[in-house]
Amino acid sequence: MNFSELGLAAAQVRSCESLGYTEPTPIQEQGIPVVLSGQDLIGCAETGTGKTAAFLLPIIQRMTEKARPGVRVLVLAPTRELAMQIQKNYGELNRVKANRGVYFEIEGHTDATGDAAYNFKLGEERAMAVRDYIAKTHSVALSRLNVISYGEEKPVAENKTKEDRAQNRRVVIRILE
Question: pTM of the predicted model, to two decimals?
Fold first, then answer.
């Protein structure tokens, strides 16, 4: 079986080919038709079997077929690393310019000045201050700014010098397309 036999459009099949995917894995073979039909899917497979492509390929195709304004897809991931991997895979699999949205992710970081809840709150306040500044100064819609707090329990640097504390109290801004 190949990807076009699963009901994927030519653009999605080309994306698969460009990434070296020659034939679908079992999770892709079973999952892609379900998502293409608009049904809910719960899939379970081992790491490295193509679960992300199994849900992203049909989602991208459905977004392409019916263009609509606003947020179209929300993907929740249990870890930051997995969220970044999914975002990377989305960029690799999505060749349709109209499907590309841009948003800012603003991360507030703080050092270990208190317990985890206190550090989280400080990081969130730092990120929100930057978000508000960007929105007001550069007229970026708040809906395009995502705020995340990483109140660190383990600082990235020692808190012994001013430079070290500056590293621990930081804001990271990423533009995701």
Answer: 0.58
